[in-house]
Amino acid sequence: MIPSRLLEKWWLRAFIALVVFFIWQICYAINRVQGLEEEKTVLQATIEVLKRKSDVLRTEIHEKERALTRLDGRIEEIDTQIRDHISLLPRVNRSTPYIYFITPTHFRAAQKADLTRLSYTLSHVPNLHWIVVEDSDKLTSSVAEILKSSRLPYTHLNAQTPKDQKMKYTDPNWTLPRGVEQRNSALLWIRNQLAGVRSGVVYFGDDDNTYDLKVFGEMRKVQKAGVWPVGIVGGMFVETPILAKNGSIIDFNAVWKRERPFPIDMAAFAVNITLILQNPNAMFSFDVPRGYQESTFLEKVGIHRYNMEPLAEKCSKVYVWHTRTEKSKLSKDLIEKLTKKTGFNQLEADALGVEF
Question: Where is this site: Interaction with galactose moiety of substrate glycoprotein (predicted)?
Fold first, then answer.
């Protein structure tokens, strides 16, 4: 114990008080440090929890971004399908008669290109059944794929032209009639498969012609046999019927073989399907004079040149053109490859639509 006499000295008392204060400060600091250590531990634990939550959130964000990317792709795909398959023509009812669009086709350098282009046109036409007949001994996968991709109702047939009626690569287009066997095959299919049909229109559409979508609306107006102008055919800008003031046909402006009963192109007319079904002998033939395929057929279904129905705004508009894909200028070696359908590399085979 400190002697009382020493306590009487003020400075000693002050010193003791100062020591006590410092001891208190040290104790407070120690307690504070311990509290901060605890807070640090809690904060570190909180940080770890937040880090884990951040990682989870980053993963969720990444997954949602991936899902959003997939949805964007799906939206674009659906949008493309809508653009590709919503008709550019006025909407039609299910009861609207079908157009049976017959296309004879044969293998050549531009066959795949021509059929692809035509498929894009026809894919915009509602109530159309595409009948494609190959001039071959079997159905080919290339044509089948084009038909499938078109998403149209279709029939895929094949009918081979007799060898003595088949043109060589170097022959002019007019040397022999083309598409005879193929059109007849399609007509037989219609008569066998659609015997009970009471409405519809049959049209013979070449794979290299050009069609305004409006022509399909004109086809649906056909009662028996409709006719309209055709551009770039017969050595003229336009071949067309000539009408009287009352709208009836009085003549045709054709300059090539005007004496034909129907001096028109195959692209210029469509007939009601009932005429096909009622006249089973109406077929195309190799034994008719050059340029008479249309006339012979129309006469066999009972049509007279002057009782055809003039359409396309009374034959004042052109909605179809008899365009022809230019025959490829190839060397003898390539022509031989094309004739034999062999010797192509993989890229050539894809371009031509042949198996590699």
Answer: 239
| Segment 240-272, tens digit of pLDDT | 999 999 999 999 999 989 999 999 999 999 999
Strands (E), 62-181: 99-105, 128-134, 154-158
pLDDT, one tens digit per residue, over 5-14 is 544 566 666 7
**294 in catalytic set:** yes
Whether residue 135 is annotated as binding a ligand: the answer is: no
Catalytic residue of the set 134, 181, 218, 294: 294
Question: What one-letter code names the amino acid at 119?
Answer: S
Ordered by start, the domain boundaries in the chain are 95-226+265-310, 328-355
CATH topology for 95-226+265-310 is Spore Coat Polysaccharide Biosynthesis Protein SpsA; Chain A (3.90.550)
pTM value is: 0.73
d(CA 301, CA 197): 17
